[in-house]
Each structure stands twice: as C-alpha cells, then as structure tokens.
Amino acid sequence: MTPSFVAKSLERQHLKTVRKHLLQIIDINTALRDVHNHIASHINKEEYEAITAYVNQYISYTHIWQIKFVCNLEDPEVALLQIFHLHYILEREQAEKFAEERAILKEQHDKFLSITLYSDNHIEERYKKMVQFIQEY
User: Fold this and answer.
1) What are the helix (H) ranges across 2-119?
2) 74 to 30, 91, 106: CA distances (angstroms)
3) Is 29 exposed, middle or buried (0-12, 13-18, 19+ CB in 10 A)?
4) Residue 120: how many other CB atoms lie within 10 Å
5) At what angle do helices 76-90 and 3-40 cross, to 10 degrees?
C-alpha cells in the first residue's frame, strides 16, 4: 500500500463519518421541526414570544416555527435551540396535552446528546444565556 492510497482511504472514511453525522443531525432537526409544526396551532405563541425571539437569532433565513434550508437542518446548534424551545414550551403546557410530543422531544434530546460533542458545561451555559435573555426581554 502506498502512502497516497492510505491517505485517500482515511479521507474517504472521514468524509463518510462526517456525512453520517450530518444525516443524524438532519433527522433530529426534522423530527423537532415536526413537533413544532404540530403544537403551533394548539398553543398561544404570544406567550412564548421571548424564547422565540431568542431562538430566532440563531436560525438563518427563517424562524423556529418553520425551519427549512439545509444550513439549518445540518446545524447542531439549531437542534439544541429547538430542544430548548420545545422544552420551555412543553413544561408550561398541560402535562396531558402533549404527551406524544414530550416523548418525541425526550427521544430526540437523548439522540442529540449521544452524537454531539457538546459538553454538559456548554449546554448549561447556552441555557443560562437563554434564561437571562428571557428575563430581560
């Protein structure tokens, strides 16, 4: 085996891993977007204006209630913010009202934690920043 063959092989393996990771993030973002779409007509969005404003700062070309574009769907930060947004809303809504959506959120949150390199500290700091924004809004 020549060094160039080994290098190309390693590069292909790396690209395959990166692509798999992006597909997993897309799956998570899509599932969370679907939960947003489902609850949108069943809640008073005005009650969640502060958190929505915070999250929308980090979503390109669209908003949290209608996430589209590959740049958003492939972005782990968008997935994290969707998790925060849904968690915030669902914890303030009646427990029995969105049981299925809560289960989907938990499942996607667990998937997100298993595939991302975000540390617990990073997630906690992002959450604190969001809470501070909401309080100042």
Assistant:
1) 3-40, 49-56, 70-73, 76-90, 99-115
2) 10, 26, 20
3) buried
4) 8
5) 30
| pLDDT value of position 54 | 97
pTM: 0.88
Distance of CA 23 to the CA centre of its chain: 13
Q: Which residue has the tokens 């997100």?
A: 112
Residue pLDDT, tens place only, 63-86: 999 998 999 999 999 999 999 999
What pLDDT, in 10s, does the model give residues 44-56? Answer: 999 999 999 999 9
Which amino acid does the sequence have at 100?
A: E
Q: CB 28: neighbour CB atoms within 10 A?
A: 24
Q: Taking a C-beta distance cutoff of 8 angstroms, is the pair 7, 57 a contact? A: no
